[in-house]
């Protein structure tokens, strides 16, 4: 293929924009701010799960405590009724003996229930503390995540801004190229993943950094200035300048 020597020089400006666009796309894919958001969201989920567990524990303990308190009430009422019967003077000696025995057993039962209530209150304190810890941790993780999201959004906006500037510049350069040369450049660019042309500087292709051997150099040297020559190693169009070392 032949293309005006001056037009070939414009490929370098196009390649510069493609390098910038490739770097921006890579930066977007590997943004540390994205990983930071994921880490913060993971911490938030962990605290939220701990919060749900602690809330469930507190609810269960509350229910258990109400049940125990109802039992204590029942025992107290029974004891009060027994005592009133004894105090009334209407009970027979045999009945009194039986009531006194029941009162003793009710007192043991009440003491036992009260011990259980105390134990429950201790467990409730522990559960309350765990709940408070989970809530504090979650609030702090939410703030971390929101901050990380803001940083990520700022970085993405910055990348989007640079990308549109470089894309506009690339479109401008591409508009000044003939369709066949641009098509060839774009085909090579798809293959290399970055650029379709590189400058030949000091006898080396600056696309793949490989120095041309004697035969390759002679071929480039003898080629018509308007001939489109390519790097045999990476396939890029080699743009010749005064620095090419030919
Ligand atoms: Zn090369």
CATH topology of the largest domain, by name, is Helix Hairpins
Report helical residue fraction.
over 70%
The structure class reads mainly alpha
Distance from N terminus to C terminus (CA atoms, Å) equals: 21 Å
Count of alpha/pi helices: 5
3D structure, described in words:
The chain has 246 residues and is mainly α. The protein folds into 2 domains: 5-26 and 178-239, no CATH class; 31-175, Orthogonal Bundle (Helix Hairpins), CATH 1.10.287.1700. 76% of the residues lie in helices and 5% in strands. It contains 5 helices and 4 strands; from the N terminus they run ααααββαββ. The chain has helices at residues 5-29, 32-88, 93-175, 179-192, 214-222; strands spanning 197-201, 204-205, 229-230, 237-240. A 4-stranded mixed beta sheet has the order 2-1-4-3. A hairpin with a 6-residue loop joins strand 3 and strand 4 (237-240). The radius of gyration is 42 Å and the shape is rod-shaped. It starts with a helix and ends in a 6-residue tail after the last strand. The model has no long low-confidence stretch (mean pLDDT 96). The protein binds zinc ion. Zinc ion (ZN) binds at residues 198, 205, 207-208, 210, 231, 233-234, 236.
